[in-house]
From TrEMBL:
This is WLM domain-containing protein. PROSITE patterns: WLM. Signal peptide: none annotated. InterPro entries: WLM_dom (IPR013536). GO terms for molecular function: proteasome binding. PANTHER family: DNA-DEPENDENT METALLOPROTEASE WSS1 HOMOLOG 2, UBIQUITIN AND WLM DOMAIN-CONTAINING METALLOPROTEASE SPCC1442.07C.
Length: 317
């Protein structure tokens, strides 16, 4: 710079050489501080032998920033216009349906903590609770169950010369508690999901009817049909990975309700079985097996009562 040049002459030269507009320039000068527009007539000799740091943005960078800003503004305007012309979303959630789902359901689910990996049983129970078919049936019949839990496989199992009898489900106090036999006897897997779900349908029918009479079986089959019809998901996956339970020789039955500390056995006897056949409807294999199991228990109780009566009777009676 010429000896008589000013700081204004310096920033003009910077603008010409580096394409940084004067108004965008700031000069940090050691011991003098910051100099910025308007720079005035200060002699450039005052800056001699001092470190000068230039702060500024070139014209190209400014143009690029303006272009980016305009592009962003245009995009925002387009989105705003699209939102104005898009129909407002509305919720498909039915408040009445939501209230029924929260009322007619299992208020609690609980695995047995003393058995291995209770988290797997909890997932099984949660799946039953969330099953679309089960939820639809519980809404339709206004069923509310206090607790859904699992049954210890060692409980309610009887063996005789006729085979092994296992109770697959229990309903206590018409829906206060429902227990389901989820696990295999060896505790190493879980039974087939749809088998357990059908057992749950059976136990839900006990919310209305205790004995295994014609009214009970009609309601049980109705619930099973409703559950299958409303099950829009693809079912049948096993929680126990590849472990499945296929009922063969064992007999599945249950005690129905729980009243006054004693199991209430479904009854009806052979006469009710004949009445069902006389009505023109053939009982299913499960119904016949349940009836047979109940008849065996009833016969055992009667034989025990006769034996006790003979033992207490006086000689010669």
């Amino acid at each position: 710079m010429p000896p008589d040049a000013t700081v204004s002459d310096l920033v003009d030269e910077i603008q010409s050489t580096l394409h940084i507009p004067v108004d965008n320039q700031k000069l940090m000068v050691a011991k003098l501080g910051m100099l910025k527009a308007p720079f005035g007539d200060r002699p450039v000799a005052d800056l001699q032998n001092k470190k000068i740091t230039l702060l500024g943005t070139s014209s190209a960078e400014i143009a690029s920033l303006h272009a980016a800003s305009e592009k962003a503004a245009a995009r925002q305007a387009h989105l705003a216009s699209a939102r104005r012309h898009t129909p407002k979303a509305y919720s498909r959630r039915d408040p009445v349906r939501a209230q029924e789902d929260s009322q007619y359901t299992f208020l609690a689910v609980r695995p047995l903590p003393n058995l291995p990996r209770p988290e797997r049983s909890l997932a099984f129970l949660e799946r039953l609770k969330a099953d679309p078919g089960i939820r639809a049936a519980m809404r339709a019949h206004k069923f509310s169950v206090g607790l859904l839990t699992e049954m210890d496989p060692l409980s309610y199992t009887e063996s005789s010369h006729e085979g092994t009898t296992r109770i697959l489900g229990l309903n206590r106090n018409q829906g206060e508690v429902i227990e389901l036999r989820l696990r295999t006897d060896a505790y190493d897997g879980y039974r087939d999901y749809k088998t357990i779900r059908n057992t749950l349908c059976h136990e839900l029918a006990h919310n209305v009817h205790g004995p295994h009479d014609r009214n009970f079986w009609d309601l049980c089959h109705q619930i099973e049909r409703e559950v299958a019809k409303a099950d829009w998901k693809s079912g049948g996956h096993s929680v126990g990975e590849s472990e499945f339970y296929e009922p063969s020789e064992e007999i599945a039955y249950d005690h129905g309700g729980w009243t006054g500390g004693e199991f209430v056995l479904g009854g009806g006897g052979p006469s009710s079985l004949g009445a069902g056949a006389a009505a023109g409807r053939t009982l299913s294999r499960r119904e016949i097996m349940a009836k047979a199991a109940e008849e065996r228990l009833k016969k055992q109780r009667n034989m025990q009562a006769d034996s006790d009566g003979d033992a207490s009777a006086p000689d010669g009676s």
